[in-house]
Design a protein that fits this description.
Layout: H1 2-32, E1 34-39, H2 59-70, E2 74-79, H3 82-90, E3 96-97, H4 105-108, E4 111-113, E5 118-120, E6 122-127, E7 143-147, H5 151-157, E8 163-167, H6 170-178, E9 184-188, H7 189-199, E10 204-207, E11 214-216, E12 219-221, H8 225-240, H9 243-252
Parallel strand pairs: 1-2, 1-3, 7-8, 7-9
Antiparallel strand pairs: 3-12, 4-12, 5-11, 6-9, 6-10
């Protein structure tokens, strides 16, 4: 009887170990399907958190969730200060960065980038009835509103014959335009596009001409070429199946 009981105990123990082993394997498999994402969640409309919302919002946030889904993974997003994003990637604390990050030579020395997913730069908004201004070269002799301390302020100040009005916020610039205090507003493209789309602004229009251009990319560790390939494949599929266009239109409207 004792031997039989011992055999039953040993059998039960082996079954338990097998189940634990299976559970561990399932957990490892589950963990492998998580794409750890780093973002500085303070850059609307790309990444931000509305009061009362649990999930991070924005163009980047929707895009990276779609990329992860195409890869058979789920995006797990961590809010990290912008200066800490690349160090976190290098320390293997995250797998990718998506945070309105410009692709440039300095960063390419530290990380691999995906194919560009958004082209930023400086664009211009004018009133709908404005016919004289069609591009940046037409701004000579006109009044332009810019946000104080920005790249747009610095670049417009260098233009010959342009009267510059510096205001505290983009909203102040748009109000000044509508009040006919200025003839145009120059700001970063996403700020202008987001304003037009989210406020359903009437009486104004965005011009296609860009004063400068810079590409945003998803960053990965230098030693992870396989992940770079998978991310690029996912981005390509999102363009092909129309999902990218849906996300873009949600945040910036129909024009690209």
């Amino acid at each position: 009887m004792k031997l039989k009981k011992l055999a039953l105990v040993l059998t039960g123990a082996l079954v338990s170990l097998a189940l634990v082993g299976c559970g561990g394997g399932d957990q490892a498999k589950q963990d492998a399907k998580v794409l750890r994402v780093g973002a500085a969640v303070d850059f609307a409309p790309f990444e931000f958190q509305d009061e009362g919302q649990k999930e991070y919002q924005g163009f980047d946030m929707d895009l990276i969730r779609a990329v992860a889904k195409e890869m058979g993974s789920e995006a797990e997003i961590q809010n990290i200060g912008f200066d800490g994003l690349i160090p976190a990637l290098q320390a293997k604390n995250i797998d990718v960065i998506i945070s309105g990050m410009t692709i440039n030579d300095e960063r390419k020395q530290k990380v691999n980038f995906s194919d560009p997913y958004y082209q930023s730069g400086l664009t211009m908004i004018v009133r709908s009835d404005e016919e004289a201004i069609k591009s940046f070269k037409d701004l000579k002799g006109h009044k332009v509103a810019v946000q104080i301390g920005t790249t747009s302020a610095n670049m417009v100040k260098e233009m010959e014959g342009v009267t510059v009005t510096e205001l505290n916020t983009p909203a102040d610039c748009f109000m000044e335009l509508k009040a006919r205090g200025v003839d145009a507003v120059v700001n970063d493209r996403p700020v202008n596009d987001y304003y037009i789309n989210q406020t359903q602004a009437v009486g104004v229009k965005s011009l296609a001409d860009k004063l400068s251009a810079e590409d945003y990319g998803i960053a990965m560790a230098k030693d992870n070429a396989d992940l770079q390939k998978k991310v690029n494949e996912a981005l390509k599929k999102l363009h092909e199946n129309g999902e990218y266009d849906k996300i873009y239109q949600k945040w910036f409207g129909a024009s690209k």
